[in-house]
Amino acid sequence: MRSKRDTRIDRQVRQKPPSPAGGKALRRLFTYLGERDPSLNNEVVAAFVIPKATVPQFGFPKGTSIAKAARTLAAAPRRRRRVPAAKSFARAISKAAATLARAPARRPRAMAPARRARAAAPPAVWQSIGPNHIPHGQTYGTNRVDVIGRVSSIAIDPTNPKHVLLGAAGGGIWESKNAGASWAPCTDQMPSLAIGAVVFDPSKPKRVYAGSGEGNFYANLGAGVYLSTNGGTTWTVLASAPFVGVGFYGLVVDPKTPSIIYAATTNGFYKSTNGGSSWSLKRPGRCWGISVHPQGGAIELLAAFEDGLFASTNAGNTFAAVALPAKPATAWTRLAVDRVIAAPDVAYVFGAAGGAAHLWRRSGASWTKITGLPTVNVNQSWYDWYVAAAPDSKNRVYIGAIDAWRGDLSGSTWGWTNITTQGSNSIHPDQHCLTFAPKDSKTIYAGNDGGIFRSSNGGRTWTALNEGLAITEIEYMASDPNTWKWLMAGTQDNGTIRFTGLPKWDHIADGDGGHCGVNQQNPNTVYHSFYNVSLERSNNKGNTWTFLAPPNLASLFYPPVEVAGMTVAIGAVSLIVTRSGGPPWSTVPLGLSPQEVSTAMRAIDANTLLIGTNFGRMLKMTWMGAAWNKIALTSPAAKYISCIALDPTNPQRFWVTSSQITGAGGRVYRSDNGGTSWVNCTAGLPNIPINSVVVDPANFNRAWIAADVGVYQTLDLGGHWAAFSNGLPNAMAVDLLFHKQDRHVICGTRNRGAWVVHVP
Length: 760
Hints:
This protein is mainly beta. It has 6 helices and 58 strands. A 4-stranded antiparallel sheet has the order 1-58-57-56, with no helix packed on it. It has a 4-stranded antiparallel sheet with strand order 4-5-6-7, with no helix packed on it. The protein has a 4-stranded antiparallel sheet with strand order 8-9-10-11, with helices on one face. It is globular. Residues 13-20, 51-82 and 106-120 have low confidence and may be disordered.
């Protein structure tokens, strides 16, 4: 979301607002994909309609188109591959998840019989520390609301309105049996926790289907269609093929023939005739939505594709284009379709094209374009977009984008009400789905980047249903050296949050939350960033903040930040650093290549910084008394460096991880001579991104790494690795902390919050 605070940030760092070409969400997507496999960006460029405007905010040089930039990032020429990068990536993630599921619990090494009984202990088990409640989250209105994380889909049991299922972007499927008052996770050990669609079989509500792989963002994490036969409490993989690496926008069970199921995916329109066991591609090309006649798809099925609206009268076997009057000449960036269940000849199509929103209504056999729409922000239409027709009314429709509106037809005039930003009755922006309660169209559930919200009066007022949902997307964390029960974390679209020992976390800063840091000599002084080069400081652990106005340079969306006493540094195309804890700032050139940027940073001490880049370059920056001196270290591998760690007992021993799975070399390296040479320590690890590494300060042989699924441990300096994920969900593990005093390892995930384990 683009928060109210972002305008101030842009002004403070003299930046222009994000371009209409996809907004901040698209830049986040490019960063997420590019650090794992640069060729994944090529597939995004090929799939989305992106203007050829210059986009320096994506981290590419001025005058470079996104398509050209994606090609320069790719290791190979842009072309169709026999195995698309997304499919190859998803296969590796699913294989790693399956291996973790089979791995035995970690147990101590064998020891002498005399000591065995006394020393034997149960294996370490990860525990969730939330957040499961974040009060005072941000809206575009005047109020604050409870938030938690991105919800992509909502399904309600057609026979029990209190039974609700939701799919989180990367946090799995959650079940509530009391209309959202409490929640339980249902899919923590499934091969993918990225969920794009959930649907009940209306004829047998105990039977529920879900599409893994979130079409709006985490499509490359698709592992297939899941099935529950007990109403959503437990799940199995029903069909992996042909959906590995494919994202879902929707699943529909045919109302007349429940054995027929339709799927709208990033790869096209699919149909199953045997209850989801096998699938056939009926029409290729990105399919954003499906609307089936209440008497079945053989009567009529409408589908929204990237090339327009199509209709089928043979249950999706063939399609014919539907002509929409006054259709824009430019290509669609998003298209959605829905119909009135009680009057199925009334249908709606809501699209974004040419930088504007367009809405049509069909009554009978003719389509009419509705004019006089409210001002709809289509900046992120590829990411947040829907249309939902009231099931029992010909004259009410809901449209969702960054905000959502209710449209009411009176005679021939439409009246529009913004239902998500309305003063003191506002909810979190970035709308992904809207679902009606069974037999009660006034009760609606909205899913957005902040979580799930319910209204019993058509959106006039709202109740947050986010307490108990642990689906926060954590980006980075920092801790108080005196207690592990004080943490700070940056989150996607839900600001910077603070843990003080309870699963209810404090919201302490708005906007997007990026890297953060704590002054280890004075932990009352803490720092957090938003996005781009930005930084705020608090001298009271986050109660109040002062903006530090660092210089505006090209950087990652979330550039690395490092705090070492009064030395505070930000990594961009240059090093931005202060030795006084705040302004004035120094900008130190790093001599990077075009498209190269700082991606990881670690302070050896207040006078020495290590920097890694997306090209695998390693630099050592040393304060010489009047200026910073740059020393080029040997590169472990020419690939994206995701994290740098130090052996606290040996300043010459560094660990480096890479999240990039393509290119020569490994993904975990160790240097024992200050970066002169490197040992590849990747053997035994799955071929998936490695995001973070920490070292045990009491045992230099012991280290942990966090991967896109799972945490792994070595007890012999990386010679061997073993799964260290007992109790941890199969979410993306993106950041690790080791708390020296309390001997806790803390893991931040997307989108399953934070987890902790004590290690002896």
